[in-house]
Amino acid sequence: MTAVILAGGKSSRMGRDKLKLNFGGTTLLEGAVQRFGRCFDRVLVSVSDLAKYPEIKAEKVLDIYKDTGPIGGLHAALTLTKGPVFLTAADMPFSSPEAALRLIELCGDNDVCVLTDGEGQYEPLFAYYKYSVLEPADRAIKEGKNSLYALYDGLRVKKISPSDLGGLWSDRLL
Q1: Do residues 100 and 88 touch, judged by C-beta distance below 8 A?
Q2: Alpha-carbon span 51 to 95, nearest angstrom
Q3: Which residues pair with 46 in a beta bridge?
Q4: Which end of the chain, N or C, is surrounded by fewer C-beta atoms within 10 Å?
Q5: Are 143 and 136 in contact (CB under 8 A)?
Q6: From CA 161, how far away is CA 174, in angstroms rounded?
Q7: Which of 27, 32, 36 is nearest to 85 (CA)?
Q8: Above 90 in pLDDT, residue 13?
Q9: CA–CA distance, 166 with 66 (Å, rounded to integer)
Q10: 73-123 pLDDT, tens per residue?
Q11: Cα 161 to Cα 125: distance, rounded to the nearest angstrom
Q12: Residue 87 to residue 54: CA distance in whole angstroms
């Protein structure tokens, strides 16, 4: 099972690289790699530049389509792995790999299994994407639809509510 940690953002609003912020004795990015590395066979860090984060020992995957946001990271990861991936962001320090594995268990035959918030809105950066999503992602990017939400149209998407995760859910998860 592969976890993909998105780390390609520019941190433009913060003015400095937020993934290098210390959180609990480690950087946000290293913490995410460590957490997901405990439960997943493979952890990929999706980056916009392979030279960025030399201190990270995890395998890196470079965006094929530049400046396309999370959908570009997902596309690159699916292209590399040729299999399903769990997608999350490095700046979510409470994201739980155990909750991710539970979400994956619930996916069934769907193309995407995505956590929803309390109002049923998608949380696309805590979701499981099967390899069948690669072609629609490629098409969406080529059409300029660089949104994971837009990608869901026409796919079999299973919404997972926080209550579906049982004791693995925490309001701090996202």
Answers
A1: yes
A2: 26
A3: 6, 61
A4: C
A5: no
A6: 13
A7: 36
A8: no
A9: 38
A10: 999 999 999 999 999 998 887 889 999 999 999 999 999 999 998 788 999
A11: 14
A12: 21
